[in-house]
Amino acid sequence: DVKVTQSSRYLVKRTGEKVFLECVQDMDHENMFWYRQDPGLGLRLIYFSYDVKMKEKGDIPEGYSVSREKKERFSLILESASTNQTSMYLCASSILTVSSYEQYFGPGTRLTVT
Amino acid sequence: SQQGEEDPQALSIQEGENATMNCSYKTSINNLQWYRQNSGRGLVHLILIRSNEREKHSGRLRVTLDTSKKSSSLLITASRAADTASYFCATDAEPRGFSGGYNKLIFGAGTRLAVHP
Q1: Is A74 touching B (CB cutoff 8 A)?
Q2: Which of A103, A114, A100, A97 is nearest to A35 (CA)?
Q3: pLDDT, tens digit, for every residue of A11-28?
Q4: What kind of fold does domain B5-116 have according to CATH?
Q5: CA-CA-CA-CA torsion for A2, B58, B114, A46, nearest 10 degrees?
Q6: What is the CATH number of the domain that holds A35?
Q7: Looking at the complex, does the CB of residue A38 fall below 8 Å from at least one CB of chain B?
Q8: Cα separation values, B75 from B1, B22, B44, B50, Å
Q9: CB B62 within 8 A of CB B10
Q10: Which of A77, A82, B57, B83 has its CA 20 to 30 A from that of A53?
Q11: Residue of A nearest to B87 (CA)
Q12: Model pLDDT for residues B17-33, shown as the tens digit of each residue
């Protein structure tokens, strides 16, 4: 079974803090993704990566950065957390493929910024 | 941008009844996928239907795809309380023929299904 794990299920941070969200997958997948999920808006793609040290902006990259130093690990960084970044953050991974394929999701991190 | 939009936003039924959720999308697609999310958890892939397929079954799930109407439906037959979850459709974000392989998906806002015992 593919396992995608995220470092925390719940996180509470203060405005202005630097926040690291970690995601690890164990299936040697090339693609990894970070989404945020807000009520009524579904999932929105923040960043994705298709290889080590490679990253591409998604639909809402502002206020976020990412790091992929190893194939299995993809980190989302909030440089200076703000209250509007309070959300559920979901990490996913998938194989590199010419046509769309299923994505495997982690359990999510519910981040609250106060 | 939101490609898939689910309808209805919320659905409440009794155990044993069938549940039908619909998804509409705007641009041409290669595939359409359905995912389930239990409350406060990650998404789980249910089924993928390719643009050249019209219907697909998996257990109690039946998915149809009408590319002329740019719509898909997910039918859950003989629903159970354990089917209570949010259901999302997702379409590939890249135009037909793109070979980048990034597997970007665009998700709709989801349908919240409540199945009452």
Answers
A1: no
A2: A103
A3: 999 999 999 999 999 999
A4: Immunoglobulin-like (2.60.40)
A5: 40
A6: 2.60.40.10
A7: no
A8: 26, 9, 17, 17
A9: no
A10: A82
A11: A42
A12: 999 999 999 888 888 99
